[in-house]
Design brief:
2 strands, mainly alpha, 4% strand, 151 residues, elongated
């Protein structure tokens, strides 16, 4: 539990370009019914390999130079989690998203699985356009708000 007046420092490792992909499907003709969403987290082993390496790298940084003298003991995942398999299990159980999802209505050619054209028109319709982060076919390595403003 944080103590009042005490300073803390956290390192975080984030997967900016996941290879894992999810799915989203309409479940009803009723527009008020939520679609079936599976984010597909960690379905590509490469993502897990990158995250295990990230935890190990963060630990290396924390033991380097001035950090080593400044930092106390590791809290999360904790010093008991050391082997690659233990780190992997930790990530699977406690890893999470930054919730900057993209691509559910990707702007790509229709034959490549795209949903909207470069003019943001939904394929197969006359007057429906999509103007949100769902049109981005790939994740970006930044907060997506400025990209959305550009769209």
């Amino acid at each position: 539990t944080p103590e009042a007046g005490k300073k803390y420092l956290s390192f975080a490792g984030c997967l900016q370009f996941p290879f894992s992909t999810g799915t989203i499907h309409i479940t009803s003709t009723d527009a008020t019914v939520q679609p079936a969403i599976d984010p597909g987290y960690f379905t590509d082993d490469f993502d897990l390999d990158v995250l295990v390496s990230t935890v190990k790298f963060i630990r290396k940084v924390a033991r380097t130079g001035g950090f080593q003298e400044m930092l106390g003991s590791e809290v999360d995942p904790g010093t008991d989690i050391q082997s690659d398999s233990d780190i992997l299990e930790y990530i699977k159980n406690f890893g999470n998203s930054e919730f900057h999802t993209v691509g559910s209505a990707a702007m790509l050619p229709r034959e490549k699985g795209g949903v909207v054209s470069p003019e943001l028109k939904v394929y197969g319709t006359d007057n429906i356009r999509v103007v949100d982060l769902s049109i981005l076919p790939l994740q970006i390595s930044a907060h997506p708000m400025s990209t959305l403003y550009g769209v």
